[in-house]
Amino acid sequence: MELFNSEDHLSTNLHLKDADVRYYPSLISSELATSYFDKLYEDTIWQQDEIKLFGKVYPQPRLTALYADNRRPYSYSGIIMHPLPFSPLLHEIKRKVEIISEIKFTTVLLNLYRDGNDSNGWHSDDEKELGQDPVIASVSLGAKRRFQLRHKKDKSLRTTIELEHGSLLLMKGPTQNNWQHQLPKSKRIMEPRINLTFRIIAS
Ligand SMILES: O=C(O)CCC(=O)C(=O)O
Question: What is the pTM of this model?
């Protein structure tokens, strides 16, 4: 993996086939990331939706929230989320992500994994409203968790990355069309994690 300096932030290109994935381990300093975590944990209007799996209904294994600078809803896995307006803190984090990525985002989906028993199963962020080559900028706060990627066609292509406190994972170009990702459960993890995935929902 190649390490280099871009905009004063070290980043690693994962060099995945048919994808464009870059990891920035320290988008936000540890101290600031902890203060962001504490505020978001308290102030976010968290919800727990239900998902249908093989005809049975289960509570989603994490809490979520949607904020945006427009009113456009986001739908995935049969769930429709209507955004609340961005708070000043969410704007501050969005600006940091936009400076590094040089991309403007409209929307953020937050996930709260209360401990290692919470998870996010295999999927691609390829919903129609995200456009043809969705850009996903994923910020991690709190417990370090394993993030796995697998190619949709070539099952031999898989990778795992540990998403650290204060990090950014930027997925661009054909990534969502060709790869799936998941955040598996882990019995060892007792601490919570907040993930913010910035997205563009333009129409
Ligand atoms: O929590 C993560 O790092 C992954 C989140 C995710 O895959 C999603 O919100 O679509």
Answer: 0.94
